[in-house]
Structure formats: structure tokens, C-alpha cells
Amino acid sequence: MHLNPLYYNEQHLEFAKSIRRFVEKEISPFINEWDESETFPRELYKKAADIGLLGLGFEEQYGGIAGTDAFYTLLASIELAKCASGGLSASLLSHTIGAPPIQHFANEAIKAQVLPQILSGGKISALAITEPGGGSDVASLKTKAVRDGDYFLVSGEKTFITSGMRADYYSVAVRTDPNAKGANGISMLLIDAHSAGISKTKLDKMGWWASDTAHLHFDNVKVPASHLLGPENMGFLVIMNNFNMERFFLAASSYGFALTCYEEALDWAQQRQTFGKRLVDHQVMRHKLVDMATRLTATRALLEDTAYRLGKPELQGSELIAQICMLKNVATQTMQFCADAAVQTLGGMGFMRGTKSERIYREVKVNMIGGGAEEIMKDLISKQLGY
Ligand SMILES: Cc1cc2nc3c(=O)[nH]c(=O)nc-3n(C[C@H](O)[C@H](O)[C@H](O)COP(=O)(O)OP(=O)(O)OC[C@H]3O[C@@H](n4cnc5c(N)ncnc54)[C@H](O)[C@@H]3O)c2cc1C
User: Fold this and answer.
1) Does ligand 1 have an atom closer than 6 angstroms to the CB of 127?
2) N or C: which end of the chain has fewer CB within 10 A?
3) What are the GO cellular component annotations (predicted)?
């Protein structure tokens, strides 16, 4: 599976190599054990920061890496997917959804204090939007923040929060104007996750075991008003602004996991013998691999085209937002198809814990639901295209 050379320079390829080495040395040898124990060492954040993985897409003055375009995200996602653990990537990179609201909307003092801690791997950042009452309908959120002098008092619940148990900072969507309807009256607040009044419960899941996922309860949590991310009551725009890169990252990861399934299945099919010949010598099995390769090629082309467009200011707008939503659906369907075909190709072995395809198969649905479910993507596409 080859990348389109038109899009990549030496720095891209060197960066991809360094992530590959990092995954081979620091993650893959341990990932089965971490997945089974439903966690991974906190030191991995620092190691990831040291090779520039955490700084991607963030400004240099706060510890980010200058000049990293969406192709870096794409390459990092492909390389990380080789460890075959979406849970690991989701938690290790939870700042990619938690910290952009800080970079783009926090005041200067907060940015200067908080971002270097996160991007150096010292502190963990999470995003808390979803509530027990609903995730797709973001505008219906109920967690309230009541102004009390220079503070807000925050009460409510958030659920399914990635890195929720061990994050140090939550970027939280709250309702600041109880009288405003829907998307109006929502704000984003940066909340210290160790504040009094916050309780956390770990959630058990179908997949993403290496990632901690939490239910959060806020009981009159005191938050300085200076921790507003963006103007008061304008938080819905902050949330929507965040979704594009989250969806691109989910799509790139889904492609990476699909590719990992394909490679494991191809390798197996070239070695496994049935009825006196290799699996790959049976036409039906060959076609299964070709179907996987075909979907992968189409998905990669769309990913690269989208990464290119993301880097062009003149191409920003509703058409690109629609394309990102299409890409998320295409890539997650490719992941679903390839995970299914790979497990089938591996036969009973594909059902055994420890194969890459087994774990990825369990992790398909979260990519199709998280960051905006498939149905919601389609609705958004139709709106962006004006019908
Ligand atoms: C492991 C995991 C990690 C997550 N991490 C985070 C996180 O870090 N931060 C965070 O804020 N959230 C997180 N989420 C939440 C995730 O974004 C939501 O689960 C997702 O947005 C869907 O919301 P929901 O689960 O409430 O489903 P619902 O909104 O209840 O929807 C249920 C189903 O109905 C469909 N549906 C809903 N409305 C419509 C409609 N109008 N038309 C057609 N179909 C519709 C949906 O597409 C979905 O298939 C995570 C979820 C999981 C599972």
C-alpha cells in the first residue's frame, strides 16, 4: 500500500520513520499486556512528547512542533495503528481533542501555563462534551455553570470521557445561560480535574481496553471565570471548530487499523495451507484480500485529498466540512470491512486474543460512533451541501 509521493517531503517520511521506531520499541512489545490490564504507563506520554508526537498541530511557543500539516497526523495515525490498539492511541492522544480549545480560545496566561505541561507529556488533557442524556444532540447538554463573582459553579454529568480517570485538565461544555435555547447559551470551560466536587467512575467497554473511559460527576465545582475558552455563551462554535480535526484523526486511524488488518490477513493467507495449497491460492480468499486492498486504496486517496485541502486556506468552508464527514464514514466502513474480512481469513485464530485483527474487530464500532456517529455525519453532510 503506497502513499501518493506527490504529497510527502523528506521531513514527512523521516517523521513517519521515527514514529515507526517508537511504536516498535515502546508500544508493540507491551500492548497485549497493557490492553489486558486496561491501562498503560503514564511515562509513555513523556516518551511520545520527546519524539514530537504530542506537539503535532500545536504552536511552537507552547511546546508544539512548527509546520506540521495534516499529512503528519495521517502518517502518525498509520504508524500508531501498527500496534493495533485504538485505546492506546485514543488516550495517549486525548489532548488532540482536549487541548485545541485551549490553544485557540484560552487567554494568554492559561495557554502559557497549561499547554507546555500537556505537550511535554507532564499533564493529561481530555474533552468532556457528551452527557448521559445524549451525545449526538450536543445542543441539548444540561451541565450548568452558574456565575458566582469571579467564578463559575459547575454541576452536572459527563459520560464516555476518554482519559477521564487520569486527566489533569478537562475542557468541558457547559450551559451558562439557562434561558437560551439549543446551541445558544453554551460555553467551554477549562476545569482542573483535581478540583473539589468532581467524582469519576471508570467504565467497562467492548474495546479500547487500554484507554480509560470515565463517567464524571460535577457537584458545585468552583472554576475561575478566567478559564472560559472563548466568549461566554459562544461555546457551540468552539465545539464545532474542534470536530473537524477530531474526525480527520478518527478517519486516519481507521485507515491505519484497516491496513493493519489487511497486512495481518495477507501474511496469514500466504502461510496457511488448506486442501494442499496456501489460502492465498484459493481464488475466494484472494478476492477477499483484493476487496480489502481496493477499499484501502480508495480511502487513502480520499484521506490524502482531504489532508491537502485542510492545508489550503482558500479551500476551507462547508464543502470541506462535508468532505471530512464523508471521509469519516468511508474510513470507518473500510475499517469495519477489513476487520471482518481479516478475522474471517485468520479463521479460528482470528477469534483468539492476541491477534491484531481480533482487537481491531472489537474496536470498530467506537470509531463509527465516537466524534459524531455515521447517521449524524450524513445529516451534517446534507446541511453543508445545502439540501
Ligand atoms: C469509548 C468512547 C469514548 C468516547 N470519548 C469521548 C470523549 O472523550 N469526550 C466526549 O465528549 N465524548 C466521548 N464519547 C462519546 C461519543 O462522542 C458519543 O457516544 C457519540 O457522539 C454518540 O452519542 P451517544 O452515545 O449519546 O448516542 P445517541 O446520541 O444517543 O445516538 C444513538 C444512535 O442514534 C443515532 N441518532 C441519534 N440522533 C439521530 C438522528 N437525529 N437521526 C438519525 N440517527 C440518530 C446515532 O447516530 C447513534 O447511532 C466517547 C464514546 C465512546 C464509546
Assistant:
1) yes
2) C
3) cytoplasm
- What secondary structure letter does DSSP report for 210? T
Domain termination residue (choose one: 95, 120, 145): 120
Distance CA 130, CA 344 (A): 34
Domain interval for residue 374: 236-385
271 alpha carbon – ligand 1 mean position (Å): 40
Quote the number of domains for the chain: 3
Reported as a single tens digit per residue, the pLDDT across 117-172 is 999 999 999 999 999 998 999 999 999 999 999 999 999 999 999 999 999 999 99
**Parallel/antiparallel/unpaired status of strands 186-192 and 144-148:** unpaired
pLDDT in tens, 54-84: 999 999 999 999 889 999 999 999 999 999 9
Residue 370 CB less than 6 A away from ligand 1: yes
372 in any annotated domain: yes
Return the half-sphere exposure (C-beta side, CA atoms, 13 A cut-off) of residue 123. 17
Residue 3 lies in a domain: no
pLDDT above 70: percentage of residues in the chain: 100
From residue 210, give the alpha-carbon distance in Å to each of 60, 175, 213, 239, 350.
30, 32, 9, 26, 20
Q: Compute the distance between CA of residue 169 and CA of residue 238 in angstroms, rounded to an integer.
A: 17
Q: Is 377 in the pocket of ligand 1 (CB under 6 A)?
A: no
Catalytic: which of 79, 246, 264, 358? 246
**Same domain for 224 and 149:** yes
From 101, 120, 139, the end of a domain falls on 120
Cell of 184: 445558544
pLDDT in tens, 262-315: 999 999 999 999 999 999 999 999 999 999 999 999 999 999 999 999 999 999
